[in-house]
Amino acid sequence: MTVHVTGLRVALDGTPILHGVDLTVAAGEWVTVIGPNGAGKSTLLRAVGGLLPFTGTVTIAGTELGRLARRARARRVATVVQSPVVPPGMAVLDYVLLGRTPYIAPLGRESAADLTAVHDVLRRLDLEPFASRRLETLSGGERQRVFLARALAQGASVLLLDEPTSALDIGHQQEVLELVDRLRRENGLTVLATMHDLTTAGEYADRLVLLADGRVAAAGPPADVLTETLLAEHYRVRVRVIPGDHGPLVVPVRG
Ligand SMILES: Nc1ncnc2c1ncn2[C@@H]1O[C@H](COP(=O)(O)OP(=O)(O)OP(=O)(O)O)[C@@H](O)[C@H]1O
């Protein structure tokens, strides 16, 4: 499903944060938003996920976000925010099952298909041994995988990922990103993510969007955005950009 964002403006508590962002993610494409702290990356993702009021237009497969009822929207778009609120005492299995809410009738019970979907995603994310554990007893990285599991269990065609691997060791980082990429290739999942690790961002995305002070400063294939000049200008850092097998490798160097 194509995501089309036009003239997106967001103000938080009266402070303008996004100043007219245009962005398209084609169906089955992976776009990652990069940019320095405070640039507005999370705000952008939350607005596209319908979690924040905004002006401008966001359409999902041609339908304006605001025209979709909550359940219909949840079947199309799943968002993993940076610090989800966790109901106290909830077991991993029950939390991931919440991802199936858009398919369960109000006051109804989950079906066998819902449970199969949940177990499938727990298996894919190495989370089966944690199924009955309370969420608050998990490590930060284990919990981050559970948040992703809930979003995947939602079965939406568009996945919004805000810093999905920030708490993961490099092994799990690669595993999680490869899984998302496989779902994208096999099921046509559309991915809009934010990431701080520029090399990883470039390795997995078809296109990068560099956000700075609430505006798009550059957009295009990773090699066009991950340049020493653009990164020096927007991150105030000296980097060396080295050609890699799956995109440029960005190495910070002492100035
Ligand atoms: N309620 C608020 N009132 C005013 N400004 C806010 C409010 N909430 C967030 N902001 C500001 O909005 C800006 C964008 O925040 P956002 O979290 O979207 O940035 P980000 O690019 O995701 O940053 P990071 O890389 O640090 O996660 C920040 O400068 C933040 O301080």
Automatic annotation (TrEMBL):
Signal sequence residues: none
State the Gene Ontology terms under molecular function.
ATP binding; ATP hydrolysis activity
Give the protein's recorded name: Hemin ABC transporter ATP-binding protein
Task: For this UniProt record, give its keywords in alphabetical order, as a comma-separated list.
Answer: ATP-binding, Nucleotide-binding, Translocase, Transport
One Pfam entry name: ABC_tran
From what superkingdom does this record's organism come?
Answer: Bacteria
Transport as a keyword of this entry, yes or no, is: yes
Q: InterPro entries of this UniProt entry?
A: AAA+_ATPase (IPR003593), ABC_transporter-like_ATP-bd (IPR003439), ABC_transporter-like_CS (IPR017871), P-loop_NTPase (IPR027417)
Which Gene3D superfamilies does the record match to this protein? P-loop containing nucleotide triphosphate hydrolases
Q: Report domain ABC transporter positions.
A: 3-238
